[in-house]
Specification:
Layout (H helix, E strand, L loop, with lengths): L1 E2 L5 E2 L10 E3 L2 E3 L6 H34 L4 H12 L12 H7 L3 H8 L28 H8 L5 H4 L10
Length: 169
């Protein structure tokens, strides 16, 4: 508590996290951040790096495997799959256990909590109908829409059972 000049006192709570530290003029995050917050940061970093670097790293890896190793058949098989899979978006997208498995990863709950994003159900939706949902403001990276509709981090499948969302930005 600190006392002001006019005689009133003001409560100054302690900081949420310990003080930051500086090294060579660079200010770093506190060392003792709770594990939950660290997991949220790792989940967001995973998403961002896979979004920004996933295509580049995959392309470089396929070129290296094709031209400089004896595993040339891996990129050929991958290219064959890409040609076969070109029409997936016109057939309703991917379905099956692998999609449900990836959508249900625990990392998406940490990702959702980083921002934080909440999905609020305001009406019952008939599972036999098609719906077009808008997310605004969506921004460039669409973090809110991604955590609600592309993953099950916000609990879409429990709020709206039987409805399978497909995100398009």
């Amino acid at each position: 508590m600190t006392e002001k000049k006019n005689g009133t006192t003001e409560f100054n709570p302690p900081p949420l996290y310990p003080e930051t530290f500086k090294l060579f003029g660079i200010e770093f995050a506190p060392r003792f951040i709770p594990l939950e917050r660290r997991m949220q940061t790792v989940a967001t970093l995973w998403w961002l790096l896979s979004l920004l670097l996933g295509g580049l790293v995959t392309s470089i890896l396929m070129a290296v495997l094709f031209f400089w190793t004896r595993f040339w058949y891996v990129p050929v098989a991958y290219l064959t799959w890409m040609v076969y899979d070109l029409d997936t978006c016109n057939r309703g997208g991917r379905t099956g256990w692998i999609v449900d498995f990836v959508r249900g990863w625990r990392i998406w709950k940490h990702y959702r909590n980083f921002f934080p994003v909440k999905l609020i159900k305001t009406a019952e939706l008939d599972r036999n109908q098609n719906y077009l949902l808008g997310s605004h403001p969506h921004g460039v990276l669409c973090s809110g829409a991604f955590s609600c509709f592309a993953t099950d981090g916000a609990g879409f499948s429990t709020l709206f059972p039987g409805i399978v969302p497909h995100l398009l930005t």
